[in-house]
Amino acid sequence: MLDTKIEMNMKKELQWSLNQLTAPEALRDFARNIALHSESSKVHPLPKKRKAWLTGVAAGAAAVSILFISAEISPAFASMLKQIPGISVAADWLDSIRSQDGVKNAAANKYTPFEPVVQQFGDMKVSLADVYLTSDKLMYKAFIQTDGIKDHLAKNPDGSLTLDRTADFYAVQNSDFEDISGAGSSEDIITDQETGEPILVISEIMELNPEEVQAFLKGNPDTLHFTIFVDPEPKLGQREGERNYAMNVPFSSSQWLEDRIIQGQQRIEVAGDPDIRGLVLENIRITPLNTYAELRLDNSRDYLLDIDSAEDAIKLTDNNGKVYPLDSYRPISEYLPLDERYQPGMIELTFNSSPFFDETVKSLTLHVNAVEISDWTGSDTFTLGLNDELPKPIRFKGKEMTITETRYEDGLLKLKVLQKAEDRMSVRFDIPSLRPDKEESPELWEEYYGEKADLRKELIIPSKGKEEYELSFLVPKQDTYEIRMMRETDPVQVDKTLEIELEP
Q: What confidence category does residue 376 fall into, taking pLDDT thresholds of 50, 70 and 90?
């Protein structure tokens, strides 16, 4: 089981670090540095981009439309869909969240092998709801009301509510499974519609070991066990220690429905790319809540696979013409980023809703329009001198760029780079030898990733009609520099379709 104390402290440190970042580019650079350069890092990588989630993990996440599912259900069931025990939640907000995480699809088909619960712990009231167990995931939502939240409210730049840095830290963890890790987490502050009191909503999707899930179910369990952790911040140099509270959720194992897994092993050929030759659809997993697909690059250890959900990059449709919108994706490798077995080119796609309960669905169609590729293990370097003769051509992955101007001013190395339309590629430039070390130079590190992060421009993102780009590096002045180039989130057109027949 996760060490909750370590996990909570890790989340705090990560949140503090993210608060120091001033731009999405800085966030990406910071995340890359954690994964590639922190030799002591033992942190499982968070999904680098979960663009489709309303929770907006990290920064710069793109919003997508939400699928609202209409279904004929009983008034009692409709009441369950609208309410959380012990609190009054805005129906529109709850519907949108449940449409995303698949709860609405399951509930509309009267699949509820759980009972929501509410419990009071002193001045803290906690409701646990939307608890669902699949063959490899556990999903749940915790709704927490307490003066400790009300007294520490702050506002995000967009006007939404959050907790200030002096607030207690809240976490909810299941204790039925040992091999458990986070697959998706979000926090929201909403308002009770009747009392006006703030409510902290913690939504968790935990990744489980399928074998452990099967062993758990063989015991015919009737309860899921949870612990609520409240970890106070230091106050005037004193620390009171964390508090924890047990909660149990009734669970009917006899009503549990097993996921449908369709083995894919279908290859998609990719032509004309310097790095990848194809993609492989490993399998499709249909649960009562959502639909999942495992997709990987044919050389998944050397390149990072991403999806740009701002475009219609991936589309899943059934034989009836129903579209299952792409909600999110995440890396699925079980190893750490520094482990040689780690495969950053493997992702799990999550699609809203599923055809689990629809017997008329006989096949699915997966259309892959485009993906994004980043170098993971490989790179190229070139030497640049401030007095080099210009223009200076640079070749990278069979494409050519030209440095047309170099200068050093205001503590920055500044370059102008020409990239013609026929050589368009998204490339990150970096000077690793001059990046500050947090342990050796904490002030420079905070400046580099914090207050001056927005001065650094190290990524060329090609745009139509533009050929000249400016780069800036926050480095000391030198006669020469060794500059590294890495392909980063570079779009690759695929435009291929796979047909997946569903087994009876």
A: very high
What pLDDT, in 10s, does the model give residues 16-33? 444 443 333 333 344 444
CB proximity list for 14: less than 8 A, separation 6 or greater = 43
- Give 340-407 as a DSSP string: TT--TTEEEEEESS-STT-TT--EEEEEEEEEEEEESS--EEEEEETT--SSEEEEETTEEEEEEEEE
Q: Do 166 and 233 touch, CB atoms closer than 8 A?
A: yes
Instruction: Please state the three-class secondary structure of 214-275 as a single string.
Output: HHHHHCCCCEEEEEEEEECCCECCECCCCEEEEEEEEECHHHCCCCEEEEEEEEEECCCCCC
pLDDT: is 438 or 26 the higher one? 438
pLDDT confidence of residue 250:
92
Contact residues for 344 (Cβ-Cβ < 8 A; gap 6+):
300, 301, 303, 304, 305, 331, 333, 337, 376
Q: Is the separation of the CB atoms in 394 and 322 below 8 Å? A: no
Q: At what angle do helices 91-101 and 75-82 cross, to 10 degrees?
A: 90
Q: Is the distance from CB of 391 to CB of 403 less than 8 angstroms?
A: yes
Q: Coil, helix or strand for 95?
A: helix
CA–CA distance, 99 with 86 (Å, rounded to integer) = 22
Determine the average pLDDT of the residues in 381-387: 96
Q: Cβ atoms within 10 A of the Cβ of 168, count?
A: 20
Q: 294, 208, 239, 491: which is closest to 373 by C-alpha?
A: 491
- Average per-residue pLDDT for the chain: 81
Separation between Cα atoms, residue 373 and residue 304, nearest integer Å:
6
More confident residue, 22 or 358: 358
Cβ count within 10 A of residue 371:
26
Residue 335 has a pLDDT of 62
Q: Is 286 left (phi over 0), alpha (psi -120 to 50) or beta?
A: beta
Which of 1.25.40, 2.30.30, 3.30.2250, 2.60.40 is the CATH number of 260-375+492-501? 2.60.40
- H/E stretch holding 277: none
**What are the DSSP calls for 405-463, one per residue?**
EEEEETTEEEEEEE--GGG---EEEE-GGGSPPTTT-HHHHHHHHTTTGGG-B-EE---
Domain ranges for the chain, please list them: 74-255, 260-375+492-501, 380-491
Token pair in block for residue 4: 């909750």
* Whole-Å CA distances, 95 to 68, 79, 90, 141, 191: 8, 12, 9, 14, 15
